[in-house]
Amino acid sequence: MDNGQQHPLRSAGHRSAGRLFLVILFLLLTAGLWIPSGWLDRPGLQIGFTQLVLVLLPVLLYGAVHRPDRKTLFPLGRLSLRDGVAVILGCVFLLPVGSFFNGLVYWGMNALWGDVPLPQLPIGPEHGTLAFFLVLAALLPGITEELLARGILLRTFRPLGTRSALWISALLFALLHLHPVNFFGPLFLGLFFGWAVLRTGTLLAAMLGHSVYNGLVIGLNFSGLPAAPAAPDLPVRAVHLLEALPGAVLFSLALWWLLRRWNRTGAPPLEPPLEALRTTGRLFWREPALRAAAALYLALCLLIVIL
Questions:
Q1: Is a pLDDT exceeding 50 seen at residue 86?
Q2: What CA–CA distance (Å, rounded) separates 177 from 184?
Q3: Is pTM beyond 0.90 here?
Q4: Where residue 69 falls among pLDDT bands split at 50, 70, 90?
């Protein structure tokens, strides 16, 4: 643990943050019940309602209840130009890496269970302009989801250990994307965004990175190139994955180089990986809300495979 101190795994803060995550996960899983029926064929309204009502509203209510902790939960200090450029470069390097691993999962699921339905992104020229979706599906989620993941979750679990908080918040962020094919991309992004916030001390680093990454995916959708992490045209054959492997390795090395240079100053101390792994496992085991969230996600994965 940080500073060599022991911290209880079960605390009021952990319970409330876990319950908040479970509520938002449940709302997203049952979004069709909450979105007005007339909006279901209008992607812009769907995305806006999901982000503003199903994600941001619970986060704001949580912040209102925990008023004395708001500055700690939502640090919005200045982001330097150097750090901003590092965040953007990291997102560029992570895009092919996340796409490769998402494609690997998709290929494996298809090999084991046949054709697996993919999450469809209702984003493209037929649904609206590029500028419209950059605001609605890049900038807006970059704010709302980061207030939850790198704001409330990362800061609440930080007393358990810096590495533990990084892993827990990134894992929950991945679960929030509601599909096993789109698990590893958000997981890697969650780790990177969490590290960027801890490294810079401001939530703006994660908001910038999240918005840039989503903007890259949206731009690829508009361009028609088969590189979006959750696109229906992900490679499903082994030969395609082998062709994509060198690029994934190259960009992984570029990301490693970037992090090494970036971590020379201001890097927070980390507890040993095994200790963080034990802490993460114990937290999920002891917190009923997190157990329930994991169970919901596994049930969703099972339904995707069966149906």
A1: yes
A2: 10
A3: no
A4: low
Report yes or no: 222 and 124 within 8 Å, Cβ to Cβ.
yes
172, amino acid identity: L
Q: What does the alpha-carbon distance between residue 66 and residue 68 come to, in Å, rounded to a whole number?
A: 6
* Residue 235 DSSP class: -
Burial letters 201-219, b for 16+ CB under 10 A, else e: ebbbbbbbbbbbbbbbbbb
**230, burial (CB in 10 Å: exposed 0-12, middle 13-18, buried 19+):** buried
- As a whole number, the mean pLDDT across the chain is 84
Phi, psi of 42 (to 5 degrees): -125, 95
| CA-wise closest residue to 212 among 85, 127, 112 | 85
- The domains of the chain are located at 11-306
Ramachandran sector of residue 287 (left: φ over 0; alpha: ψ -120 to 50; beta: rest): beta
Q: Which of 46-55, 157-166, 192-201, 232-241 has the lowest mean pLDDT?
A: 232-241
CA distance 264 to 276: 22
pLDDT (tens digit per residue) in 140-162: 999 999 999 999 999 999 888 89
Q: Report CA torsion sign: 274, 280, 282, 285.
A: negative
- Residue 152: what are its φ and ψ, rounded to 5°? -65, -50
Reference 22, options 307, 284, 304, 276; nearest CA is 284
- Pick the residue with more confidence: 238 or 294? 294
Question: What sign does the CA torsion over 290, 91, 141, 100 have?
Answer: negative
Write the DSSP symbol of residue 21.
Answer: H
Q: What band does 304 get if pLDDT is binned at 50, 70 and 90?
A: confident
Structure tokens at 222: 């508009």
